[in-house]
Amino acid sequence: MRYHLQSIALILRTSWQVNRGATVVAFVEALGRVFEYLMPLFVGLAVTGLVDHRQSLLVLGLLGAIGGQAFSALLGIAGVQARVGLNERIGHRLDAEIAGISGGAPTLDHLQDPQYQDQMHALRERMGALGMAYNSLVNTVNNLVGPITTLVVAATADLRLLLLLLIAVPASFGARATVRWEQQAEDESAEAGRRSKHLADLTVSPVPASELRVFGARRLVRGLLAIQSGQWRKPFTRAVIHGSVLQTVITAVYVAGSVAVLAWLVRDALDGRVGPGRVATAVLVVGQLREAVSNLQHGVHFLAQTLRTVGRFRWLGAYGERVTAAHPGSAAAPAALTDGLTLDHVTFRYPGAERDALRDVSLHLPAGEVVAVVGENGAGKSTLIGLLTGMYDVTDGRVLVDGTDLTELSLDDWRARCAGAFQDHLRLELTARESIGVGGIRDGELPGDDAIHAALEDAAASDVLRALPAGLDTQLGPSWPGGVDLSGGQWQRLAIGRAMLREAPLLLVLDEPTSALDPATEHALFDRYAAAARETSRAGGVTIVVTHRFSTVASADRVVVLAGGRVAEEGTHAELMAKGGHYAELYGLQAAGYR
Ligand SMILES: Nc1ncnc2c1ncn2[C@@H]1O[C@H](COP(=O)(O)OP(=O)(O)OP(=O)(O)O)[C@@H](O)[C@H]1O
């Protein structure tokens, strides 16, 4: 209960921050509802006035009935207007907070946490409920007014009508059971829902859709999608069937009870013990109470859904705080490196993985050096880069930046001093200026066009820009109006340009930057890399080139060979060749392949 009250407080606080006036006006609707539900009382007065020929009672009854409806309608309009604007603004605000929590997490561990993913999926499924949170709160208050006012009217008309309350109570228990079943259905189906979404995305995204066609796997994916969608919907269908059965039973009991109470009243009326006005009020109260309780049930149901979603939002907020608190480091990154980067007995295992991706790795990457990291698929090269850029926390050991543990540095500050072009580079479908310029954002501003041109020159990508119809203003991505598609290699070269925009990085990562490039471009690029690396080394920056192409490796100051998550060999190209070990063997194989 306390948790729900805190969620309600969060909704009220958010609404108040968004628009104070509308927050208050939305509640006046409830006042109008009081007059609406006093209707049976006024009708009873009018009937009594009519039967007893008491004009004042008749006028009071009619005025009350008509005026009450008009007043209620007016306040209703004001309330609805206030709510409409609020819903949207509250929704935007909470959406922005969710994006902030997810995007603001210092590391990427959360993206592999199934619990986080399930909560996020359930939250996205009901994203609209967050925007409607205040609305559903106001609705519940409005719907509470109905039964309460009706019960007051019933009590003043005839105490026997309060027996109907005995039926309303099980009804509210029924509503709670329905809510519980729904919550269970949401939790049970989250994983299947996520899998369905993944499979459905595969069939509509261009790259997977074409691979599935090539493999003739479309039918298989459709079959899997049907199974997962079925598993996703099954718990909801079960909850709906249970809810409907319960609702039918409750309604039948209510109808039977109402008939009994009304029969009792009518018999008394026939015996002259009860006046016709009271009977008229009673008939209206029976119908009104049922409607009011049903509205309340729906309102509570909707509110419970909303509170559940707000609960997930709060879970996410607490998760974000926990993750941020686990990275308290606030020291600024050094202006320049003098010693370099060190991995001290580092072991790392991905969340949920069964094996270490890196095991007891100790390495020193001296300031100003160009280090090539080589190794077979899965050797741990990208993982090493992930740890050096602080994307993941080491499981054991330390990563040191000029002797300072990376955990003591502000990760934002450290990453502002890192630059990189990655194997799975970002295809930012914005204008070319924005897509490249994000690599050099300063104080939220894109760099000037001259800087972008220079970076593209360093990345040997000026010709990609020259081919774009509107230069830096060209929209990238074929699915946008006027958008242009690029080849894999062209996207990659723009990504390298993005990396070259960072001034004097302390760590420049080139993670298989040439994998999508043709040999001529690759050759042109290596010379530029060497120049960029010399720039970087002036601030003591370390350049790491991860590659499968040994032609790059030979010119590096140092070569690190990873195998099975461990450092297999380390030294200069000449030293490793002379040693005749794993590196020499791989180099020999590739050289033979080129002959
Ligand atoms: N996100 C992840 N979750 C779990 N395990 C992962 C993840 N990424 C990589 N691994 C595992 O960690 C190990 C090292 O992977 P990593 O990507 O670092 O290798 P790599 O040397 O960069 O390989 P490649 O040359 O294929 O890019 C592999 O066994 C891989 O299966």
From TrEMBL:
Q: Give the taxonomic lineage as stored in the record.
A: Bacteria, Bacillati, Actinomycetota, Actinomycetes, Micrococcales
State if DNA repair is listed as a keyword: no
Assigned GO CC terms: plasma membrane
One Gene Ontology term of the molecular function aspect: ATP hydrolysis activity
Pfam families the UniProt entry points to: ABC_tran
Per its record, how is this protein called by name?
ABC transporter ATP-binding protein
Domain (ABC transporter) spans 341-589
Instruction: Please report the stretch or stretches of sequence annotated as the ABC transmembrane type-1 domain.
Output: 34-305
- SUPFAM superfamilies this protein is in? ABC transporter transmembrane region, P-loop containing nucleoside triphosphate hydrolases
Membrane topology is: Multi-pass membrane protein
Q: What is the originating organism of this protein?
A: Flexivirga aerilata
Q: Which PANTHER family match?
A: ATP-BINDING CASSETTE SUB-FAMILY B, ATP-BINDING CASSETTE SUB-FAMILY B MEMBER 6
Q: Where in the cell is it found?
A: Cell membrane
Q: Which UniProt keywords apply?
A: ATP-binding, Membrane, Nucleotide-binding, Transmembrane, Transmembrane helix
Transmembrane stretches, start-end: 30-51, 58-80, 239-266
- What superkingdom heads the lineage? Bacteria
